[in-house]
Amino acid sequence: MSAILIDGKKVAADCKKLIAEEVSQFSGRKPGLAVIIVGNNPASRVYVNGKRKDCAECGIESYEYALPEDTTQEELIELVHRLNEDENVDGILAQLPLPDHLDADDVIYNIVPDKDVDAFHPISVGRITLGKYGFVPCTPYGVMELLNAYNIQVYGKHCVVVGRSNIVGKPMSMLLLHSNATVTIAHSKTTDLAAITKQADILVCAAGKRGLITADMVKEGAVVIDVSINRNDEGKLCGDVVFDEVREKASYITPVPGGVGPMTRVMLLQNTITAYYNHINK
Ligand code: NAP
């Protein structure tokens, strides 16, 4: 039996519609998102353009700061401090990666936590670990919303997360844990990955390695969420999961593209709305 396809595009479009409706009812100042981009990384440019378009579609003001490649750390931090003080800006995001001469951690640490819509600041990370969420990192947040949209219960399930990065694997594991799953985290030093993944009721793959997860590594009826974005030999986007074979064994599966990616974008808007409410209720 073929798995039910989790349609991230549709769920994201529905979420976006709700956000746009909510924003249309705000009187006075609209929520504002400041996005900083440094240099000419083409992928970053695509992401930033996407963010601007998403904001426009939902009535959120977006303020773009496109800085030249040779921007200094001091200039960048000065901009962050200015945006920290700006009453019209609810959320601040620095598009990563930054050019090599710049220190991304320093930039993130200088964003005031109540505008940290990417949820990368140590205070946000601490809150996530404590289960006291302010902002939730967009990709894991998007995964939780997808599970919710398809009424997939997490409570009591064994969830295996492949990947332990600060932006995906670790926060993903925390969100699942706080939803009362039993969580196992696998990574590149895990000795027998298949033995671990085969135990998963819900398998979240975020290794960034195409072809990593084959059908023999998946339990019959498992829910398979593929976060990764890789390219195959033809240059097409693909995840970690060998989709055609795993879909025959899973109960639910996300495609790449069209699964987690669109949700990540929408969750940034959701975090911006959260920041807006925090500011107007201060
Ligand atoms: P990352 O920082 O490179 O982390 C990858 C993680 O996978 C690491 O923890 C690594 O282990 C682990 N890993 C690598 N090879 C492995 C293997 N063979 N077996 C088991 N674990 C392995 O990447 P990331 O930033 O977390 O992103 C992961 C993927 O998600 C990438 O493809 C990225 O493009 C994608 N992504 C998608 C979205 C979206 O919106 N859909 C958002 C963000 C990222 P070690 O820690 O031991 O090195």
Features:
282 residues, alpha/beta, six-stranded parallel β-sheet, 10 helices, 11 strands, globular, binds NADP nicotinamide-adenine-dinucleotide phosphate
Strand order in space, largest sheet: 1-11-8-7-5-6
Number of helices: 10
Low-confidence runs of at least 5 consecutive residues: none
The SS-based structural class is alpha/beta
Strand percent estimate: 15-25%
**Rg value:** 19 Å
Q: Count all strands and give the number.
A: 11
| Largest pleated sheet | 6 strands, parallel
Shape: globular
Mean pLDDT: 97
Distance between the termini: 52 Å
Secondary-structure element string: EHEHEHEHHHEHEHEEEEHEH
Helix share bin: 40-55%
Which compounds are bound in this model? NADP nicotinamide-adenine-dinucleotide phosphate
Molecular structure report:
The structure is a single chain. With 282 residues, this protein is an alpha/beta fold. The protein is built from ten helices and eleven strands. The strands form three sheets. Strands 1-11-8-7-5-6 form a six-stranded parallel β-sheet. Helix 1 (8-24) runs parallel beside helix 10 (260-280), helix 2 crosses helix 10 (260-280) and helix 6 packs across helix 10 (260-280). The N and C termini lie far apart (52 Å). Bound molecules: NADP nicotinamide-adenine-dinucleotide phosphate. Residues 139, 162-165, 167-169, 186-190, 193, 206-209, 212, 227-230, 260-261, 264 line the site of NADP nicotinamide-adenine-dinucleotide phosphate (NAP). NADP nicotinamide-adenine-dinucleotide phosphate binds at residues 139, 162-165, 167-169, 186-190, 193, 206-209, 212, 227-230, 260-261, 264.
